[in-house]
Write a structure and sequence with these properties.
By secondary structure, this protein is mostly helical. The protein has one domain (2-27, 60-108, 120-191): Four Helix Bundle (Hemerythrin (Met), subunit A) (Up-down Bundle), CATH 1.20.120.1630. It contains 6 helices and 2 strands; from the N terminus they run αβααβααα. Helix 1 (2-32) packs antiparallel against helix 2 (50-68), helix 1 (2-32) runs antiparallel to helix 4 (134-150) and helix 5 runs antiparallel to helix 6 (183-191).
Length: 207
Amino acid sequence: MAITVELAARVIVTAACLSQLAAGVAVFIRERADSRPAPTERAKGPIAVVNYAGIAFFILVGLAVAITGSGALTSVAEPLGDALRIAGILVLWVAGLLAVWGIRTMGRHLVSPAEVRPDTELVTTGPFGLVRHPMYLSILLLWAGGALALLGWVLAVGFVLLVPAFYLRARTEEGLLTRHFGDAYTAYAARVPMLLPGLRRGLGRQR
């Protein structure tokens, strides 16, 4: 059974990586053809590209580990290996569903950079009613799911490093949104947690 579960995990992680690549290209093309007004404010610097790096490196590292099988923690292959791989596959499905849900909910307001435009609307429905940054959470879940599914220590390290990076990216974006929406965003942040569903803390206190 171990070989079957491992093979399934490698196939699913490969599919997840290719799906991310296709989605990224589609979003890039759509943003280039977008006729919306120019941004009034946009974050700059290393933190502003965390989401790009998170997706790009997941594709590269995930594909490398899934195809070659290198970097697996074989010491936990028995007796926990199959259970961890299956848990990882489930986490990957959750990540994919969350990303699709978030993209559909955002619609034309979905943008890759941390920015605000004159016509930016505050979206609080769908997954944005569960957490303020479901798209960032979906990327973190990809790394966590990939690490479990492949028992990959490189993916596990990447996940640990990306958690604080995405927290800083989220805080940077929330500064833009607070300046743009004022009390409306402050009230939203007070009732919806940042990244962990069910952890209700206001803006500036979410961890």
